[in-house]
Amino acid sequence: MSLTPRALPSAGVSAPADKRFRRAETRPGRGGAGWLRSRALRWGALALLAIGVSAAGFIKLARLGVFTVDRIVVHGNARLSTGEVLTLVDGLRGESVFAADFEKYRTRLLDSPWVADATMRRVLPSTIDLRVIERAPIAIGRLGDQLFLVDPSGVIIDEYGPQYAQYDLPIVDGLVASPAAGGPAVDLERARLVARFVDALATMPNVRQHISQVDVSDAHNLVAILDQDPVALRLGDRDFAARLQRYLELAPSLKEQIREIDAVDLRFDERIPVSRKPAATVASRTAAVAAKGKH
């Protein structure tokens, strides 16, 4: 008997799919270089559009005069009136707030003897903020029969006259000189000496108001005279307050011991040289002190 092989059932084994040919299911990420370039181009276009619109609007506003200076606000002036300050910057009103030449107008302001410094800034759309720093006189410099207001830096502010009667300042000899050419000039070293003297007296207001005259002919030895007391006080170039206080304490006993004192030298700690001169000298100095009260 012949046997016919019977067909065996085939086992169903699934083969893995070949993934090399499958389409990607995910989209490209946004971090790619192409996406960044695209985004940059879009923002760049928007920025240019905004700039164009802004520039067009700015030009239109400028043509309408929105940025034309129509207001100047002045600060810091005390001696100069606001009108006087505005006169110094005549022409600024009506200019473009952006094109105005600040340096030109600042130079004009500094031409005023009362102006020590000036600053300007723009306040959009059409205002200029102007701040001045005025000079503060510390003494009345005397040259012959002329009197001048002088500031701490040695600048002659103006000739002294009745319009400045509110300034109760000492008359200083030896501060102002008359050069061979030009007008009166102030020696800077002597001006600084006077400034130190005035600063030192800030702690002695009761004494300061009685300083009548000062002499700085010697740049290292300031001489002061009190009103109602014609004695010349030689104070040197430092410790002014202490030396003045020393004289005030010793003056009664000195005057009891020595009549007609001409000068007292207070530069030395261990001794106080006192000099006497003829009565005529004392009388002339007394007259000078009295004359100061009339200025």
Uncertain stretches of 5 or more adjacent residues: none
Helicity, as a percent range: 25-40%
Strand order of the largest sheet: 6-5-4-7-10-11-12-13-14
How far apart are the termini? Answer: 163 Å
Major beta-sheet overview: 9 strands, mixed
The succession of helices and strands, N to C, reads: HEHHEEEEEEEEHHEEEHEEH
Question: How does the overall form come out from the CA principal axes?
Answer: elongated
Q: Averaging pLDDT over every residue, what do you get?
A: 83
The number of helical segments is: 7
Radius of gyration (CA) equals 43 Å
Name the beta content range. Answer: 15-25%
Superfamily (CATH H level) name of the largest domain: Cell division protein FtsQ/DivIB
Query: How many domains make up the coordinates?
Result: 2
- The class by helix and strand makeup works out as alpha/beta
> What is the CATH topology classification name of the largest domain?
Rossmann fold
CATH architecture of the largest domain: 3-Layer(aba) Sandwich
* Strand elements, count: 14
CATH class of the largest domain: Alpha Beta
